[in-house]
Design a protein that fits this description.
170 residues, five-stranded parallel sheet, binds adenosine-5'-triphosphate, binds magnesium ion, gluconate utilization, transferase, kinase, Gluconokinase
Length: 170
């Protein structure tokens, strides 16, 4: 009797704005040969308008957004996937892993100085750099009981992606 293919988790690339979630998430999905989704694309228009005006979202705003991402994760079954999502608070991560699909969190971790510099270099994006402080204030690092890993964001995107590949379940 032959076993079927091993179930593959959905990898949620998490971290503050500017930590490189979209950059690394896309590269990681390519290397793993699985679909990639961008959490920003799951925001209702009202959330984008609010962020564009420089206001942080509250948890009521985030609920439909997290629900939509969780639905995408569930839709992957055990075929694998990568989705970028800040997932700063444990309760957001709890929402994302509440379904039957296994979820693995990959936290892109770097200093506020490094991330601020990368944000400053990035133009035409709806996240004003002034919100970085509130992002760090909100960040709740992965707890020991959460399936996941921390990857440092020093170096270039390819280097970080190699680190990510070494850290995720294969
Ligand atoms: N390793 C890297 N070295 C240099 N620049 C990088 C690196 N990774 C990402 N960048 C650049 O830093 C900026 C932030 O990266 P990116 O947009 O991927 O972050 P993000 O976490 O997706 O941010 P957001 O939460 O706002 O969507 C981008 O301009 C990106 O091109
Ligand atoms: Mg992004």
């Amino acid at each position: 009797m032959t076993a079927g293919p091993a179930p593959r988790p959905v990898i949620v690339v998490m971290g503050v704005s500017g930590s490189g979630k979209s950059t690394v998430g896309g590269l990681l999905a390519e290397r793993l040969g699985v679909p990639y989704a961008e959490a920003d694309d799951f925001h209702p228009a009202a959330n984008i308008a609010k962020m564009s005006a420089g206001h942080p979202l509250d948890d009521a705003d985030r609920a439909p957004w997290l629900d939509a991402i969780a639905e995408w994760i569930t839709g992957r079954g055990d075929l694998g996937g990568v989705v970028s999502c800040s997932a700063l608070r444990r309760r957001y991560r709890d929402r994302l892993r509440a379904g039957t699909t296994p979820v693995f969190f990959l936290h892109l971790d770097g200093s506020p100085e490094l991330i601020a510099a990368r944000l400053a270099a990035r133009m035409q994006h709806f996240m004003p750099p002034g919100l970085l402080d509130s992002q760090f204030a909100a960040l709740e690092p992965l707890a020991p009981d959460e399936a996941g890993a921390v990857v440092t964001i020093d170096g270039g995107p390819q280097q970080i992606t190699e680190r990510a590949l070494a850290a995720v379940p294969r």
